Automatic annotation (TrEMBL), chain A:
Keyword Chaperone in annotation: no
Protein name according to UniProt: Centromere protein I
BP terms from Gene Ontology: CENP-A containing chromatin assembly; mitotic sister chromatid segregation
Gene name, Swiss-Prot/TrEMBL: cenpi
Region listing for Disordered, in residue ranges: 1-28
Subcellular localization: Chromosome, Centromere; Nucleus
Main subcellular location of this protein, as a coarse class: nucleus
GO CC, any one term: nucleus
Organism superkingdom: Eukaryota
Compositional bias ranges of the Polar residues kind: 9-20
InterPro entries referenced in this protein's UniProt entry, alphabetically: CENP-I
Family: Belongs to the CENP-I/CTF3 family.
Pfam families in alphabetical order: CENP-I
Protein source organism: Nothobranchius furzeri (Turquoise killifish)
From TrEMBL, chain B:
Naturally occurring in which organism (per UniProt): Nothobranchius furzeri
Name under which the protein is recorded: Centromere protein L
Originating gene: cenpl
Compartments it resides in: Chromosome, Centromere; Nucleus
Keywords annotated in UniProt: Centromere, Chromosome, Nucleus
Phylogenetic lineage: Eukaryota, Metazoa, Chordata, Craniata, Vertebrata
Family: Belongs to the CENP-L/IML3 family.
Region (Disordered): 1-20
Classification via Pfam families: CENP-L
Amino acid sequence: AIESALRPSDQSVSCRSGNRSMRVAENERRKKAEEPFVLALKYFSDVQTGTPVTGNDEFEKNLVLVERVAYSNGLSPEAISIMLEFAMSLRMGSSPCVRVLKCLLPSSVVPQEAVVRGVVWLNVGKMPITTQVLFLKWVLTVFDMIDAKDQLRAVYGFIFSFITEENLCPFVCHLLYLLTRKESVRAFRVRKLMDLQSKLGRQPFLLHLLSLYKVFSPELVALSVPSRVKSGFKNHNSPWKVALAAVQRRNGAQIASAISLALPVGDRTSSRKRKHGHLQIPVLTSVTNKQPHTEQNSRKKLIPLVQIQSFDQLLKTMHQIELPAQMGSLLGSGLALQYLDCVQEESALLRLNFWLGCALQEEFLFGSDDDAAHIPEETLQFLDKLLSAQHFLQEGFSSSDAFLYKFLNVWDGSLMRPQILGLLSNIPVIPALRKLLFEPLTQLFFTSSLFFKCGLMECLNSMLVKWLTWHSVYALEDDLDISLGSHTSVNMTLSGFKDSVMELVHFVGRLASVGLQLEGCHTLLLSFVLDFYGTVCDTFLKFGLPLVVMPPAGVFYPAFFAADPISLDRLAHIMHRYRVNLTSAKNQEKATEAFHISRQTFQEFNHYLVFMVNCLWNSRMFKPGMDVRLSEELLQKSNVPQYWTRFDLIHHPALMSYAFDFHQKCWPGRKEMDLNSIKVPEPWSWYLQYLFNQGFDGLKDFFQSNINQHSSSGSAEAC
Amino acid sequence: MERPQTRRTPLSGGVEKRMSKSRSYRLSLRSCVSSRLGLTPGWTTRRLNSKRKAPKSQNITNQVSPDHLALLVKHEWQLSYVSPLYHFRHTQLKSYARQLSAFIAAEKQQGLAVEVGIQDSFKVSFSGVQGLAVADDDPETVLIQVHTKPVFAQQDDPLKLVWSGWLTCCNGSPEYLHSLPKDFTCLPLFGSSGAQNLTSLVKSWFQKNFDCSFGPLEINHTSLEWLVALWTNCNTETNIQNLKMLWTLPVEPPLQVTYVVEGNDAWDLWSSLQQRSEGDGGEEAGWIGIEEVTAFMQGLKNHFYRHFRLELSAGNLSQVSTSLGSAKCNGKIKVSNSRYMITTLTLLTECALLKMPV
């Protein structure tokens, strides 16, 4: 049977499916949890009056369950009814009441009946006044989610009667304010309010209600309402606000916007300072404080970026566009990003970096992580937006680089892994990387799972590709236009860049060697490592960087001895590309003498090549001077027949199944399998053809470039 | 410099040249942005100064107007750091005041069901505070005050101060200030006192108008230790009365230790350390090094250990106070004596600059 191995492109699929399976498991878990939840609700609807609370494990267990559901998904209308009824009836005393009220987070709507019943209960029991206040606060918070208001309006008078209770008065006034209609305004109510006002003083909540009454029936309210009243009722939604927002976000409800608008202002602004306030991309707005003194501005009319509607318009007005008030807002729209690509003003880029740097560091470095395991949706959205912006611009922002250098030291390697690795791959390859990047990454790499190791390999590969590509554009231009020297930055000379790339490649080589050892040469990891060397072997021809770095022994030998044919084939391909690159570098080196590939690189290459050819082709595995050395005695003792042939094209564990298959096809009648019979010249060339037809292009290229076909099959020579 | 000799001459050389030109320009600009702010290899080198001048009593009453000084001394301030302000002009303060009052009024009106008499009940004033800028590069400190008229006040009742805040830069690192382009004004330290929602309104107005960002500024352990030493050092000139420190120890349940040392005793310990270190070299006089601060703190901790067998090093210093002022680790500071204000603000400016992302 042919072993299947993961191709590099499968990686993203595999991680996505990993996520999916997690989600499926999560759903199943939730389904299972639902069953006890129904039982818990049943408990609360059936529980007898006077059941003790203290030491009641069953009650505790059920309530914890309800709370968990409430805080994660919110409660259904029926659940709200049951729990509210349970709490307000004080069946188990007033102590659980507060706890229940605090977790009454509706998932969709609040049934009106439940609220009306709650209001009625206010009058019945011996409920502590603070709990009554809490209930009213809750009603005010969820007011916009109550499914209908008609029955509540029907008990307007009943609610009004609570107004005499001093502590309840502000909240009752607020509720009445929301319920009042023209027909609710009666002379006796106005009188009552005026009475209260004379007793309590000119309280804003009374004034508000009165002013509303005056709007409906000016003739009844003789009072002159001062034109300046402290704005709004106080906002009382604090115990539920954050949790409610979270529940709604999770349920994808649109009610959220409605509720925040409907609530009077009060502390609306303070909601901005909630934890993830930093991660809001500012709205695109034009500058309010124009600079009057710049003459240039007056000469040509500037158009604020906000007014640009289409790409055509952007192109036409490119030179008249005025930057927005907040540079961060450019990340918010695709059109603005197009423009950002052309912004060359240092101040503007600096503004963007200041904003981004602050947002990132406040969120991930200095922020208190009370709930580190749970990553809010906004955070991921923000990072994804940032990533797509960087992807669009094909480079990172220096503030996100600076942030990463710090963040890597505290990162656990799993929090937001795809996003962080994505940002990481945009880090420029600069000389200082060793301390900033390699040290923390080494620690992370060796302490993390196989999956992380693969992810990091992929990330470092794409980092290398990005900067090699950048170089290939940059170098081309340097050739053409030398006067550009004034623009090129000081710390990015070609030799500096070359050294940095070399350092990066060596670093990855070290990681890969040890990583492969740690993970028992895992095929998946090996595949990512070979991806990386697929880039490295072509640096000269594909990207024009005169640098060839060979893989370390810790990468080469695991790939060669791998039991899957794909790794072997890819290694052969990589060796073939190395050969092509080295040959062409050598030719150019002779012609121009502009650069120099070290002799040692050629030696290393030849060393590997001879080994490969000896093993695969010549069946002479243990020759003196090779890296793999075993004493003759030991080999004899192992009782492996013809041990020197064990890694040739026929016996290599990765290819043996093909040899079997070939043997069967070649000699269908034969009872006894004799693989050595393939070695005879004629079947040997058929066998090669057969292998190459299986899609082993790497091996094909490798042998075609390295083996002199005209010489006899037994004694091919290495270059 | 080595240069790659690629033989591939692109056919559409002109176009490609233009394209790559802009690209490399921007890329190099990027690295300029980082290198000129000492970012790339440099961020590791940005640390709190390990040495600072011993505070001298400075009579700044001549330079700073007594009203401003009284205000600064009166309140406890909640600190934040601010990234540099873009296009901030000290000449435009009057217009800023108008804009901010309009902004606050507009925000306050939002979401009201029924408009109840729109009238801007907030009056904002911006003023430059002379005399707090010490070094030549320091931009002038800006003081912001929000007044309001009480709801049922009579016509001629005085306005009530409901919020105040300031932005300052005291002895800010010249390298950093110089590295910023001319368009930026660096006032990294922001202190506010008053209603939370006004603070966030003011912040969001600044963010919108000067493209800056705010973040909370905690006063960390080391900075608090510095304050302990700096304040104790003043005892000869101004009696600090008591040196009071609050330690939080991470045990279950959490333990808070209030450690009060008589000012003169603290000074005795401090001066004994000073004599010892001054013996080494005379040219260092007038400067305090971090080693001395650490030694002083160690002395205090040792003393405590001798009496109570409790190792304070295991915990965190979370609050310090003397008659000169008080500081808390959550970023609240009060400077009670204007004479040593500059020293404290210098330290805090340094902390704020350390928080700058680029």
